[in-house]
Specification:
Layout lengths: L2 E5 L4 H12 L3 E6 L15 E3 L5 H10 L4 E4 L6 H6 L1 H22 L3 E7 L22 H20 L2 E7 L1 E3 L17 H9 L5 E4 L11 E6 H16 L5 E5 L4 E3 H12 L5 E4 L8 E2 L4 H7 L8 H14 L13
Parallel strand pairs: 1-2, 1-4, 2-3, 4-5, 5-6, 6-10, 7-9, 8-12, 9-13
Antiparallel strand pairs: 9-11
Helix pairs in contact: 1-7, 2-4, 4-5, 6-8, 8-10
Length: 335
Amino acid sequence: MARVLVSGGAGYIGSHAVRALAEAGHEVVVLDNLSAGHAGAVPKGVPLVVGDMHDTPLVARALTGHGIDAVMHFAAWLDVGASVGNPLAYYHNNVTGTLSVLDAMRQAGVKQFVFSSTCATYGEPSRVPMDETLDQRPINAYGETKLAIERALPHVERAHGIRWVALRYFNAAGAHPDATIGEDHSPEIHLIPRAIQAATGGAPLKLFGEDYPTADGTCLRDYIHVCDLADAHLRALGALADGAPSTAYNVGTGTPHSVRAVIEAVSRAVGQPVRWESAPRRPGDPAALYASSLKIQQALGWRPRYADLDTIVQHAWRWHASHPRGYEDAVPQNA
C-alpha cells in the first residue's frame, strides 16, 4: 500500500479518488486551499492540509512529513469559458501551480505522479471515437494549460526520475452511490447539475445550439461517472508502483449522449420536466466528443462500472436531493 498526497482532494473528482484510495487501504493526505473544495468532502481520519499548491515549501513539507510515495494532482481550474476570458490566471494557476507541486516532489524525492488531464487537449477532433494517437491541438486556454503540463512531464522524468500517468477525462458526472459526496460548484458549470437545478425551480437551462449535424441537433458528449474516474486513478497508481512506463490514457465510456438525452434522463430521475431555453452555439463547441478507452482497458484492465446515462443521472440526483445546499447540508466527514 502507498502513502498518497491528493492535491485538490477536497474537490469533486479529487474527493472521490480520496475515498477510493482509502477504501483500497492506501494512506491518504489531502492538500487543498478550499477555494473550490469542501472540508466536508474529506473522509474522517484523512489528514487535510489546508494550503496552496503554489507554496512549494509547504507542499514539500507535506510530502516529507507524511512519508509520501506518490501524488495525485487534481488542483486546477476547469471552466473553459473563464479560461478564454482570463488566460493569464489560468496559466498561473494550472501551469505554475502544477510545476510547484512537481518541484516539491523533486525536493522530497517522490517519484510517482498521476495527473488530471482532459480531452480538451485534443481540441476539434479529426475523428471520433477519439484515441490517444490524435493530434493535440487545444482551442482554449484550459486545454492548453493541461497540454503544457503533459509536454513538461517527459522532461521532468528525464531530469528527475518522476514517472507519471496523465488521464484525459471526458465529461465527469454523477456522484458516489451512497450520496455522501458529490458535485458542489459555485457557480455550477456542468450540464447534469444545471439541468437538475432547472427541474427543481432554478433558472431555465440554456441549450447551446440545436442545429448540430447530430440525430437531434444537439451536441454529443461522453459522460463518465466520477467513481469510474476514481478507479482509473487507482489503477494508474498501481501501474506506476509496479514499474510501468509513463503514458497517457483517455478515460470515457465510448458512448456519446446528446444534450437532449441528458435533459430527458434528468426529467425521468427528478420526476419533473427540465425547463430549458434555446441559446446560440458557443464558439468552439464541437458537434461530437467521445472516447476510445481501449488503451486503458487493455493496459490496466479498467472498465466503467456505471456507463449507463440513467444510472449516472440518478446518482447525481440522489446527491442533490439529499444536499440541496451542497456541502452546507452534509454531515462533516472530517470532524
